[in-house]
Amino acid sequence: MTIRILFTGENSFIGGNIFDQIVKGNIFDEDLEIISIVRRISEGKAPGLEVTRGVRVMRYVSSIEESAHVISNDFDYIMHFAAEVDFYGKKEIIEKNLEPIRTILGNLDSFKGTFIFASTLGVLDRSNLDSCDVPLDEDSKKFPTSNYGVSKLEGEKLISELLPNNSLIIRIPWAYGENMSKSHHLARLFETVRRRGLVGYIDWPGQISLISIENFARAFTNLLSSGTLGVVHVYDEHMTFGNIFSDFKKSIGGNTTQYKVPRIFLRVAHKLRGFLPFELRCLLFDSMLSHSVLETSWKKDFRKRSTLLGNSISIKDHKLSAPIRTVIITGGGRGLGASIARNFLRYNHRVVIADAVTNPDPFQRSLQFPHHLSRENLSEFCIFLKNEGLIPTTLINNAGVATSGDFSQLTYRDIESMIEVNFSLPLLLTKVIDQMYEESPLGIEVVNISSSSAFQQIPKYATYGATKNAMSYWSEVINSESRKIQTLTVYPGGMATKFKETKEKQLQIGLLNPEKVGRVIFENYILGTTGRLVIGIRAKIFQLLEHTIPRSIQRKVWGRLENRI
Predict the structure, then answer these.
(1) 202 within some domain
(2) Which three-class secondary structure state does DSSP give residue 388?
(3) Domain end marker among 315, 342, 370
(4) Cβ atoms 288, 208 nearer than 8 A
(5) Are 362 and 386 spatial neighbours (Cβ–Cβ below 8 Å)?
(6) pTM here?
(7) What digits encode the pLDDT tens for the residues 476-491?
(8) Are residues 342 and 241 part of one domain?
């Protein structure tokens, strides 16, 4: 007997895992014939017919609507895992997810097989006035707070209405495992912890349901073998957000201290829950399911789960699998620039260092443009890149000049040098590289090394701070202005480097190690971080003061500190 399956979503995290389990023979014992509709081909797979160990897979690389001609009543199973997943997406995502369901159902008139639909816990969520005292179950009131959740709920209604007796709707909570997307909820929480966000140090009491991808495959097999129909929930553990944050910190060797939420705050929050943002309600109140189809014996050991969670989205996996970049680093011959270069070289990226200061020992595999970049030699630098056959994918504007002193004491050359090196050249260099991609849909990724001086009011550093502030403004606005240029603006605190032409008398307290700062910048870049990255407790304090203390007071404080140093 041959089982015929129509499968969508082979490239998705959950759907891809189930597809692989089916092909490996871990779910069905019979011969299989699978029609897979995918929008793009994953690495190691090919369009057309593929036959392995009694499994015939025919892949159609197109949308479901374009492949409607292959949909019929002859399938034993229709497994619909494909979906646009964006919990913060606009209303358009509702139609994007509903149209494929309508297409499939519209081509069925007397379907006798089983229609399996991957839904989400997000169709339930919690309303603003929900007491949050009773766990969620199949009969709980449906209250999706995201357009993605709305699309899944509407899909459930369509399927239940047209196939009431032969459909299986699986509501999936937060699933995790290898090859998770960087946009996954847990990946976002992990990023918060890795960046040492304050929210990660709080023992949030709200619980959420989780399931490992391995256990979801077990549950899926169990559901098919038992012939289960209707709406089911699957999970293998509840965890508080406080425990999730704690486990993430264990996986990266961080401080696992967690601070309890005061009871009085919880009482007040419960009274005002109708006015709280949805994310804060999740952190404070339970969003867990009441029961699961999973067997108790399948649950993971708690300590093992900690390792699974951390390893599933750790920087290690992203670094080793990241595509090779061609990276330009200005001022890369020493200090922070050299640290960033070493991190890229460690993982075999192509590195071009533009700096008159060269140190060949750590950069044996890098290319050297042995000059400080300037307006005059930009064209020479472009010729250098073309002669080497390089089109940069990444630009790290690290070079900088800082000259202190009262404005009246600065020379014209001092002012021109800071404006050119700190502001004009990074923009011009970005423009030059952008023009290399003029005929290409590809873009460039730009990392701009700014300074906490961008938001500090420090006397004798007016010009330097102004150039860093101007760079920060351009860097952050360009993200919304251009799809081809994405930037990460880094604000490191004071570092123990030989930063030429800075003031000689420095406050030598809490200086950062440039090697560690370079590592943090590299990891955030590989993880796709854009926008702002503030590094170091000093820089974070200065950023906080900028928004809490009047600037006139800040200037007086910095002026007195300058006189004492």
Answers:
(1) yes
(2) coil
(3) 315
(4) yes
(5) no
(6) 0.56
(7) 888 777 767 888 899 8
(8) no
DSSP 471-532: HHHHHHHHHHH-SSEEEEEEEE--BSS--TTS-SS---SSPBPHHHHHHHHHHHHHTT--EE
Q: Which residues of 26-42 are buried (b: 16+ CB within 10 A; e: fewer)?
A: ebbeeebbbbbbbeeee
Same structural domain, 357 and 374: yes
Least confident of 35-44, 54-63, 459-468: 35-44
H helices present in 252-399, as ranges: 263-271, 278-284, 302-312, 315-321, 335-346, 378-387
Is-contact 553 501, C-beta < 8 A? Answer: no
Neighbours of 492 (CB within 10 A): 23
Which of 256, 280, 315 is where one domain is finished? Answer: 315
**What pLDDT score was predicted for residue 321?**
45
Q: Are residues 207 and 330 in the same domain?
A: no
Q: How many Cβ atoms sit within 10 Å of the Cβ of residue 117?
A: 24
Whether 439 is in a domain gets the answer yes
- Residue 57, in any domain of the structure: no
Residue 350 phi, psi dihedral angles, 5° rounding: -80, 125
| Predicted local distance difference test score (pLDDT) of residue 127 | 62
Collect all residues with Cβ–Cβ distance below 8 Å to 521 and sequence separation of at least 6.
340, 343, 447, 449, 490, 533, 535
Give yes or no: residues 262 and 349 share one domain: no
Nearest C-alpha neighbor of 456 from the set 386, 553, 323, 384: 553
pLDDT-based confidence at 523, cuts 50/70/90?
Answer: confident
Whether 195 and 231 have beta carbons less than 8 Å apart is answered as: no
Q: Are residues 306 and 360 in the same domain?
A: no
Taking Cα atoms as reference points, which of 423, 531, 534 lies closest to residue 470?
A: 423
- Domain tally for the chain? 2
pLDDT at 542: 67
pLDDT for 439 equals 53
435-449 CB burial, b ≥16 within 10 A, e <16: ebbeeeeeebbbbbb
Residue 292: both structure tokens together: 């699961």
Q: Verify that 421 and 553 share a domain, yes or no.
A: yes
Q: Specify whether 330 is located in the same domain as 465.
A: yes
Of the candidates 393, 420, 419, 398, which has an alpha carbon nearest to the alpha carbon of residue 333?
398
Does 405 fall in a domain? yes
Residues 165-203: tens digit of each pLDDT? 999 999 888 888 777 766 677 777 877 777 777 788 888
CB 331, CB 398: distance < 8 Å: yes
- Regarding whether 311 and 332 lie in a shared domain, the answer is no
138's tokens: 């199949």
User: Residue 277's domain is classified under what CATH number?
Assistant: 3.40.50.720
pLDDT reported for residue 311: 42
Provide the residue range defining the domain that includes 196. Answer: 83-315
Q: What is the C-alpha R_g of the chain? A: 28
Least-confidence region, from 22-31, 221-230, 313-322, 462-471: 313-322
